[in-house]
Design a protein that fits this description.
2 copies of one chain form a homodimer.
Chain A (H helix, E strand, L loop, with lengths): L5 H8 L3 H9 L6 H14 L5 H8 L4 E5 L4 H4 L3 H16 L3 E5 L6 H7 L4 E5 L6 H9 L3 E4 L9 E2 L3 H14 L5 E5 L11 H16 L8 E2 L4 H9 L10 E4 L2 H13 L9 E6 L12 E4 L2 H16 L13 E3 L15
Parallel strand pairs in A: 1-2, 1-3, 3-4, 4-5, 6-7, 6-8, 8-9, 9-10
Antiparallel strand pairs in A: 10-11
The structure holds a DNA duplex (30 and 30 nucleotides).
DNA sequence: ACGATCGGATAAACCGCTTTACTAAAGCGG
DNA sequence: CCGCTTTAGTAAAGCGGTTTATCCGATCGT
């Protein structure tokens, strides 16, 4: 009934446990005949080395963990996560690693970290001075940060959020928009300030707006979902201060904004221009197709995995330069309407 | 430098390893004073039990594996996967479990299974007689099948694929379409036949078509991506046999079909009606909004996780009834055009 | 005052595998 | 035919926890 162990194979084949282990891990150290026999017996018995035992004695589990700051159901509602995993996945498959998703356990990310049997961690959106990272360092697990701030203790993989946001705002300003709104990402965990990513994007938006001689608007916060975008639209200023253009920090929310606007009787882009951030795969297929800032998410995942794997091999901690972002102009933005509030 | 172990804590606190272990796992068995002291020392030293060691001796890892038949990058390109993980995630968080993604290792799913340290598996789209499942049973890991065929050895979670497909086809037929095309899902792994899911959906389409007194069309195969949908459109019959309606087994491919059609100068739905399958979250926001068969993917994940957790607790293997599917009519389908190719 | 009971703590076995010596036999040059 | 290196295989010591069985001294009932 119980699982077949290395000892079972050993005695069935009339050899020592060592021989069986060698048969799998260093076949060269066994005579041809014995090798065949051991392998045969092992196969017949359906033997598979116990992964935990293996991990314990080899001090490596063949798994890397993805540290997820929120609930799985929230994070995977955002296609961003899918893209990222595609990137991580490529490298994992290349190096025969599996991917463990580690959300807060029982509310605590720290405790989740402690329970995870992994060779390294990829952390998403955590500030470099987050408590969770201290725990990680305490245990001594190599870690790479994605969407964080510069750190001297961990490699960080980022994109040029600020530049992208700046381009987005400049785009709207160039189209003559003077009344802008900003929809900002919520803090990753309750009672925290903006995520590093949100902070940088906000800075980019504001820099462009101020350079155009206008006061930066007070941002509205919205989660990363269509529904959140709808709510965000509803809390936008109305009347005199109604914006003609909205800068949204995620494509998901941008779709919500577009939809809510239409429901409210506005046309996109004629009455309201919307620009998102991410360029998710389906943003090209929305109605209208979304103007947005493209960030190379898959590449971000690849890069982070590559850095982590290097780090697990003992390499240093030099962060790569931020990956480029580019504005993708589609059909959700147009010149500020002459009929708009402006006149 | 090296990780701090239970022995370190024990000697630092002047107690036995047993006491330290008890402090964490059965606090009641320790005197109040010692408990406090041990916990204090453990915290100061930054001690965390080694997960692999723990898994080995407790015979449980606190992880469930998701068996992924293809490459991660391929599977996560489909939002279906995100939805499913949301469902699985809910239950995992409820039970303090983490989720391990297990794609084929080095090309072999079997070998990936052997290396994964998990308490149970959720298998996606694998036929009940797949070799991989034999390995699983050999090792004796509880497993739940999603999108498979009825099995007497494993619980299976399915939706009413056939019914949904039937409804989709009936919808088009009811709109007067007489020239239909079918875009079918590719086999999960090379050199295999259709997945159980594809087979059932095909049966549903065909049943409706035959009931209407028409010969079932020869299906075109397309992967689950917009690009694949575009290719599928291009291999549709032209001229006299050009379809006025297309039944697509995935929303992703359906979007590709719609787009390719428009590129080819056809209007959707006026010249071509398209109905998808899945009702992914963004299918409501495409241009035009997609008519599709809704399947409760998140619920599917929840259900599967629930069954697996039950099974890990030793419960039986009764599969639940297939979850319901419903046709969601949006704007990608309309009456068969009088102006279409037909005349 | 004495055996029974009990709370508090521990020694040692065990989980299943890897790996480092170490040994016995076989091959080899001289 | 003898010492010396290979070759083939093994015993045993980890890896870092959990858990069972046991021990010891203090309290309790009578």
């Amino acid at each position: 009934m119980s699982r077949v162990t290395i000892a079972d194979v050993a005695s069935a084949a009339g050899v020592s446990k060592t021989a069986v282990s060698f048969a799998f891990n260093s076949p060269g150290r066994l005579g041809h005949a014995t090798l065949e026999r051991v392998l045969g017996v092992a196969h017949d018995l359906g033997y598979a080395p116990h992964p935990a035992a293996r991990a314990l004695s080899m001090r490596r589990s063949g798994t890397i963990g993805v540290l997820i700051p929120q609930r799985l159901s929230a994070v995977f509602a955002n296609p961003f996560m899918s893209e990222l995993i595609q990137g991580l996945g490529e490298l994992c498959e290349e190096h025969d690693l599996t991917l463990l998703l580690v959300p807060p356990l029982d509310g605590s990310l720290e405790s989740a970290i402690r329970h995870a049997s992994v060779d390294g961690f990829i952390s998403l959106g955590l500030s470099p001075d987050d408590r969770a990272l201290e725990v990680l360092d305490g245990i001594g697990i190599p870690t790479v940060l994605i969407d964080s701030d510069e750190s001297s203790t961990h490699p960080v993989v980022n994109v040029d959020d600020r530049g992208g946001a700046h381009a987005a705002a400049s785009h709207l300003l160039g189209l003559g928009h003077r009344q802008l709104a900003i929809v900002v990402l919520p803090p990753a965990r309750a009672q925290m300030s903006y995520t590093p990513t949100a902070t940088r994007r906000l800075a980019g938006y504001n820099a462009a707006i101020e350079a155009a001689g206008m006061p930066p608007p007070r941002p509205v916060t919205a989660g990363i979902s269509v529904a959140a975008g709808i709510r965000a639209f509803e809390s936008l200023p109305v009347g005199k201060r109604r914006p003609t253009g909205v800068l949204v920090m995620s494509d998901m929310a941008a779709i919500g904004v577009m939809n809510a606007a239409r429901t409210a009787g506005m046309r996109v882009p004629d009455d309201l221009s919307v620009v998102g951030f991410d360029d998710l795969p389906f943003s090209a297929w929305t109605n209208p197709p979304l103007t947005t800032v493209r960030q190379p998410i898959v590449e971000k995942g690849r890069m982070a995995a590559r850095m982590l794997i290097d780090r697990m091999k003992g390499k240093g901690i030099d962060s790569p330069a931020p990956l480029g972002t580019t504005l993708v102009v589609r059909a959700s933005t147009s010149e500020s309407g002459k009929l708009g509030f402006a006149n």
